[in-house]
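If I may wish for something, please walk me through the protein I am sending here so I can picture the backbone:
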Amino acid sequence: MTRLAQLRRGSERRVALVDEPRLRLLGTFDSTYALAQAAIVGGKSLTDIVHEHASDETLDYDEVYEGRSAWRLMVPFDHPEEPARCLVTGTGLTHLGSARDRQAMHGDESQLTDSMRMFRWGLERGRPADGVVGVAPEWFYKGCGTTLRAHGEPLEVPPYAEDGGEEAEIAGIYVVAPDGTPWRVGMCTGNEFSDHVFEKRNYLNLAGSKLRTCALGPELVVGPTFDSVRGEVAIERGGTDVWSRTILTGEAEMSHSLSNIEHHHFKFAAHRRPGDAHVHYFGACALSFGDGLRLVDGDVMRVAFDGFGRALRNPLRVDAASHAPVAVGSLA
């Protein structure tokens, strides 16, 4: 299994092959996006291209991961030239745990909410036979590439937000070929991060609750196993875990197949623009918010999945500025 990282030192950026405990730098390519496009155009596997261009130049992974190197980890995938051409989206209600948490937010056990109905539709029709279109899952928009944060970078609670909480997930990484065909580059550990207090007030707040920063990385895994993937999510406060859960994701743990999720994302022609990049979160199965934990400034969210490399760690930062109206100018 090939694992890649993107690094930056000042204005210089590089791609590295993870070769524990070292990072082996690649020549020629300075982004995983460029590697993926080269694989498409050249008709080669991404793994073959990576190994063809792996150099003898290496870095100590511990130093980079812990922030003790001049090199800094970037998100493992981005659109290097136009961040606005990287669409960040997600699919919700794909795991029983998330459906239960949403049911608790918006109803009681005696009332079947729309959230639980959608989850059940997925169980019934989210795994269609080959050549058959299944039921559409919940879909949401996070933002463009500027909303992505790397390992170690803070996830922000803006002045207008009511909360900020982790959503430990795996995200699919995609590029669109010159002929409009979407290609899966790989998958990454992710923290989809949302405002659950705002969402809980009314289900129709879901769209706005998702417009927050989110994290990805530190590694991009090419061709991972995505059947049943074990992981761990934890909240650290003052150096001690105050909440943690063992989590499961992957197709065997979800109400929708991967192919069904991908179809319903890429069925839209606007999502198949040649050259565009896509990051799509596949859903969470456990939330600290669901267990009554409210995150505070300085908490560290930690997410790790077996086979997906090192843990993704991001501190929470609360912007304490007052929420002031945005003034819009007129060109009249």
